[in-house]
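Try this one yourself first.
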């Protein structure tokens, strides 16, 4: 399989991240315009906290620059080693879908149990990607 196919789930994860960032921006603007928080809060994160929905969206943006980096590294490594295969591509696609599910939970009801379960599944999938890459590289 051609390595270029891994670009599709990578693009999807990037678009998901950009979408979450836009949601966070909109929530911040809405809270500032409604007088719920001062715009200067977002310069240094000092002062009265913004509403819960703003904090939730800010937290998920930060999260999208944490564990998804493991996804991007394994995706790029699979491309560089020319080891992209259907299993790895399937796991990459599954990872992005699960991250979307995780974001949906975080941005809505934010219940810890379901959110933690989905997060753990995403970690298992990214570790599966690593296992698949190592297997195909060293077999």
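Now uncover the answer:
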């Amino acid at each position: 399989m051609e390595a270029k196919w891994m670009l599709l789930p990578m693009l999807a994860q990037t678009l998901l991240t950009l979408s979450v960032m836009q949601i966070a921006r909109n929530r911040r603007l809405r809270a500032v315009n409604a007088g719920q928080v001062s715009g200067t809060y977002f310069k240094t994160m000092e002062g009265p906290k913004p509403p819960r929905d703003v904090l939730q969206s800010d937290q998920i943006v930060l999260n999208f620059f944490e564990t998804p980096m493991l996804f991007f590294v394994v995706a790029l490594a699979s491309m560089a080693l020319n080891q992209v295969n259907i299993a790895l591509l399937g796991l990459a696609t599954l990872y992005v879908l699960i991250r979307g599910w995780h974001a949906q939970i975080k941005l809505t009801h934010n219940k810890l149990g379901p959110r933690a379960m989905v997060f753990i599944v995403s970690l298992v999938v990214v570790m599966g990607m690593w296992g698949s890459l190592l297997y195909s590289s060293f077999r």
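Discussion: Residues 7-33 form the longest helix (27 residues). The mean pLDDT is 96.
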